[in-house]
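Journal club prep, shared notes

We agreed each person brings one worked example of a sequence with its structure written out as tokens. Mine is bis(5'-nucleosyl)-tetraphosphatase (symmetrical). I'm keeping it raw so we can talk through how to read the token line rather than staring at a rendered picture. Sequence first:
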Amino acid sequence: MMAEMMQESEMCEKLRTLMDEERYVHSLGVRDCAVMLAQRYGADVEKARVAGLLHDCAKGLPREEMINRAVEAGIELGPKEFQTEALLHGPVGAVVARQTFGIDDTEILSAIECHTTGKSDMALLDKIIYLADYIEPNRDFPEVEELRRAAMEDLDKAVLMALRRTIKYVLDTDRFLHPRTVEAWNDMLKRFKEQKIEG
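Then the structure, token by token:
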């Protein structure tokens, strides 16, 4: 049965029971960053708030539970090498957001679902949550300031930069590269190049 969508204060209380303090603080940071980006690029601010807050709502679940929730929801798990917490928590997060937090908005669910891998033909909210997860105030890595500046100037360029960094990291650490990340890169690069030609 579908839960009714909670108030934000209720969501925060529930989230605290699903994750540790560090992950919770990160979620608040993504929420606030998503709101800022939504205001900058004309997206629905309320949807950005909710998607940012809930993007990691499944991150604390054990791998076996993630797999079970995915199977119950009819999510295609793909090859074994992609059945990791890091790659499953997005799609399973969309299930948890729907079942536990009462979210039925398809844009919010899509943004939660693809916030780790990206995907082909990302919508505005998808890109905002993908990027907000990357550059929220608690993040600290060498290129983060450059990415934050880019995020305020050109959303697509910043998403491309984040995708490039992710792909490089995956390759440098001998991990399996998810096909959806390749699709996201190819699609975003094509769009970016077309925009430049038109511009």
